[in-house]
Amino acid sequence: MPQFMLLIYGDPANAPGTEEQEKQYTEWLNYTNSLMATGAMVSGAPLEGVEAATTVRVRGGDMQLSEGPALESQEILGGYYLVDVPDRESAVALAAKMPNIENGSVEVRPVVVFPGSG
Predict the structure, then answer these.
(1) What is the C-alpha separation between 94 and 7, in angstroms, rounded?
(2) What angle do CA 112, 69, 52 make, to 5 degrees?
(3) What are the residues facing 11 on neighbouring strands?
(4) Is 33:118 a contact under the CB 8 Å cutoff?
(5) What is the C-alpha to C-alpha distance for residues 43 and 1, in angstroms, rounded to an integer?
(6) Cα separation of 70 and 24, whole Å?
(7) Residues 6+ apart with CB under 8 A from 117
(8) What is the pLDDT of residues 57-100, one digit of tens each?
(9) Higher pLDDT residue, 107 or 69?
(10) Which of 84, 80, 79 shows the shortest CA–CA distance to 111?
(11) What is the pTM for the complete model shown?
């Protein structure tokens, strides 16, 4: 089956308060467990905040490091799931069930399969 990356974005200005975060934590656990139960989940993890990010570039043989994400955006990448599902529609359906979908967004992107890689 094809694999899809579900990239989870959110706007820190719209982040839920502590009480709502605790509620969402349980929802995220349930969501993750449902992916594992159906066999769709390959991997996934939350990411540290953008303040922990380092962007690496090499230009003309010189390494350039900058603190922060590669792109500035109102919404930040907060985590991901890699899922193995029959088609894009199935991946989109999983994205639509994420606990943060009401105040965030999920980018669904297919993983490239190179010829001869299985």
Answers:
(1) 12
(2) 115
(3) none
(4) no
(5) 15
(6) 28
(7) none
(8) 999 999 999 998 888 888 999 999 999 999 999 999 999 999 99
(9) 107
(10) 84
(11) 0.89
**How is residue 81 written in tokens?**
């799931």
Query: The tokens of 9 are what?
Result: 């974005």
Q: Which domains does the chain have, with CATH numbers?
A: 3-48+74-110 (3.30.70.1060)
Give 43's strand partners: 82
Amino acid, res. 66: S
Identify the residue whose tokens are 């899922």: 83
3-class DSSP string for the chain = CCEEEEEEEECHHHCCCHHHHHHHHHHHHHHHHHHHHHCCEEEEEECCCHHHCEEEEEECCEEEEEECCCCCCCCEEEEEEEEECCCHHHHHHHHCCCCCCCCEEEEEEECCCCCCCC
The neighbouring-strand residues paired with 66 are 55
Residues 64/50/104/82 CA torsion (nearest 10 deg): 70
